[in-house]
Amino acid sequence: MSTVAVSATDQLVASALLPEGFKVPASRFIHPSTRMRQLLDSEPFLFGPGVYDPMGAELVMYYGFKAVYFSGYSFAIGHLGTTDMDLYSNVEIADAARRTVSALRKFQLTMAVGDPEKGIAPKHLEIPPVIVDMDGGYGNIFNVQRTTELYVTAGVAAAHIEDQVLPKRCGHIGGKALIPVSEMVGKLRMARAVATDLGNDDFVIIARTDGLSAVDAPESLRHMELAVDRGLRYLDSGMPDMLWCEFPTSDRGAVETFSEQIKKRFPDARFAFNWSSSFKWFKDPNPMSFAELGEMGVKFIFITLGAQHAEGHGLSVLLQAMSAEQQDGYIALQRKEFAPDQDFPTRSHHFFSGVPYHHLVGKAYDAARLGREFVETLPEDRVV
User: Fold this and answer.
1) Does the predicted model carry a pTM greater than 0.85?
2) Catalytically active residues, by annotation
3) Would you tell me which of 129, 200, 293, 342 could form a disulfide with 157, CB atoms 3.0–4.6 Å apart?
């Protein structure tokens, strides 16, 4: 494993949490919301793979992605084993987001140490800003107030709020209903006010509308016309930094129409786009590329359930193999993990979880039984 190159604008600096001689990118000390705004201004688009736990976020960070999307639907499946119909509370998802942000900061330290004893060089990873689902705010404006406070104090960079009646449901499940525009704007205003009150004017707020496929709303249902009208009214409030319309299919025509209509009044509007796992992109003869979306003004792109589908596939393959071949099924997985041309950081769970870092820092702080002298010498060709 080689040391990752660091850009000229992001020099390495010391951290009080690292042993002498080890360093991290200076961006560690930039607030995640500020960091996200810098990336939005400098990148053609920002892509955040969807995850639901700290380990998934660490893998996103390891492979150099510049954002992490913490999906509500993924959280519902991954932590409750249920669907996305407002069946978890704001405190539950906020705590999961807090643990994820904390894990990324710790992961940066552990990778910055590498493993000196095994000759594994430090890897200087940038901490990607974490964008978190806020659903419909989990109640009225005071629920939004509490949720935003939890997110901001957790170090979350951004959140999106949608205009569905509560209990809400996934944007690709039928039966969605909308709250009045004034109520949605009130929620956006509250989120902005909380962030400002906490000293984070850079907190990124994304307004989502489900007007395109809603079946009930205070105003007449006009589908695309309604979605555009709602989007314009949210931007008129001056509260959101980005606008997200949830689309029912992968039809590029709808995306182009929505963005073009919005840009007639807001030419510099920025959009978020759910490159959704609900769509069978592999059957689309001309699927929208991230680059094409960026040209339409989409600045933040995410795949909500990417990690869930990857786990479902990978774990199913392993379980099927072990069911048929018992121990040989797991041995086949290890052969893939340790193939010389592969870079799977989790193949050594000790390295991935930061054992070398804990030994080094534990020794420096005189922690009991932490130091290289307590490490059992075992042949590297037999154990991780």
Assistant:
1) yes
2) 170
3) 129
